[in-house]
Amino acid sequence: MRLKEIANLFMIKETQGNTDVDITGLQMDSRKIEQGNLFICVPAIEGFLEDRHLFAAEAVRNGAAALVVERNVDINVPKIFVKDARRAMAVIASYFFNYPSDELKLIGITGTNGKTTTSFIIEKIFSDYGFNTGLMGNNGVKIAQQMYQTDINTQEPPILQGNLRKMRDYNTDYCVMEVSSQGLDMGRVTGCNFRTAVFTNLTQDHLDYHHSFDEYKDAKGLLFSKLGNSFTDKDMKYAILNEDDSHFEYFKKVTSAEIITYGINNQSDVTAKSIRMTSQGIHLLINTFKGDVELDLQLIGRFNIYNSLAGIAAALVEGIPLDSIKRSLSQIKSIDGRMEIIDEGQDFLVLVDYAHTPDALENVLKTVKEFAENNVITVFGCGGDRDKAKRPIMGEIASNYSDFVVMTSDNPRSENPLEIIGDIEKGFKEISSSSYEVLVNREEVIKRAINMANSKDVVIIAGKGHETYQILEDKSIEFDDRAVARNYLIQKEC
């Protein structure tokens, strides 16, 4: 592809140098440049991303054939000057990979909690029914039945569009994609032709990036406002919304797509009734606009009812029958790091969960309290360089719903772990009856919780879930809550 083709994508631009140069690929990371790539100099995002204009020279040394810039850099290669390099990157990536989202059906899922579980539920239902499916999200990218690890939830456009093209090259029918608030705000999914957008719930998170809850909400709303504003029977758009969430009306207002609702407390288009929950799973009756069905889920927790309802709604929209949906849902035991049971034959329950927001932690602990026969022991911390306001809130929640809490390090990043724990501890100090300990070393904390557990206790290890690393200052080390828990369970059993 020639640079001049790319330049012609923009009405307002300037070019410098020979635009007849051949472009072999797209990059915004100078370290990953290959010969002939176009390097896109996106501007800085304070605290999250450095100004890529500063790395233009390195990119050219590594083989970049041309640059997309917002301001001049003194480097003698062809350049395209644009007003908004981040938007330009999305436009270029969509064109370079020949608009892959127009060739498959794209389902986007956004919300504070439940995105990963809901995406796996939808993918499972669709795959079981016979569709070729792809997946993008927190746990990785699935292309042609193969899972690949990723470093961020919602990928940047050159990678995202490239992966969509690979999916389509393998005849993928549907891609189910988690869409983060940062990804929406940064325009990472600009150019993606979503067929369906799913809203799970909205509570406090990522205020280190968005600065206010309203900004966070508005970012989530972008997924629904991007569904399009025209009606055609050849390109129908659907917004699947949680009617029980207090922000339902906002999301309903910002979209012109057909709205399909789900919930428990309201008589929605897809509703759960006659709910019975145990430590082994959930029995419930589902009322839908396509009929009713009884379900037995092996998943734990009320929040997983909402995740399942969202998945049911997404499947019904695509004509998948209820009996097929029922079969798929009944087979799902757990999602990696989401209320995942770690079982080595012990006489108490150990659960690992990704809960890292106040709402998620409260949902998990409330669920456990509903079936716990003895003590609830909670292990958790909070990430460094992230929303500090939620730390004492999560401390108070852990204190309210646990019999004993061990506060520890999560991913402290550049912060002092003891200072993070001190912020969490403020929520405990307001409740004098709380029983808790502080121990920075996360492995020692997991060992401590398992060794103190007695018959019929429940140990919750929260915050990191599926992650297989821990971020300490400027490095990552291998660390998996599940593997550590399993190791000490085996030792205890011995």
Structure at a glance:
By secondary structure, the protein is an alpha/beta fold. It has 16 helices and 24 strands.
Side by side, the strands of the main sheet go: 9-8-7-10-6-11-12-13-14-15-16
Mean pLDDT: 91
Protein structure class: alpha/beta
Ends distance: 63 Å
Largest sheet: 11 strands, mixed
Number of DSSP strand runs: 24
Oligomer: single chain
Low-confidence stretches: none
Q: Helix fraction? A: 25-40%
Shape: globular
Counting DSSP H or I runs of 4 or more residues, the number of helices is: 16
Return Rg in Å.
Answer: 24 Å
Percent strand equals 15-25%
Written account of the structure:
The protein has 494 residues and is α/β, with parallel strands linked by helices. The chain is 34% helix and 22% strand. It has helices spanning 3-7, 56-61, 85-96, 115-129, 157-169, 181-185, 207-210, 213-225, 248-254, 302-317, 322-331, 358-371, 390-401, 417-429, 442-452, 481-493; strands spanning 14-16, 25-27, 37-40, 66-69, 79-81, 105-110, 133-137, 140-143, 146-148, 174-178, 194-199, 238-242, 258-263, 270-277, 282-288, 291-297, 340-341, 349-353, 376-380, 404-407, 436-438, 458-462, 469-472, 475-478. The strands form four sheets. Strands 9-8-7-10-6-11-12-13-14-15-16 form an eleven-stranded mixed β-sheet, sandwiched between helices. Strand 17 and strand 18 form a beta hairpin. The mean pLDDT is 91.
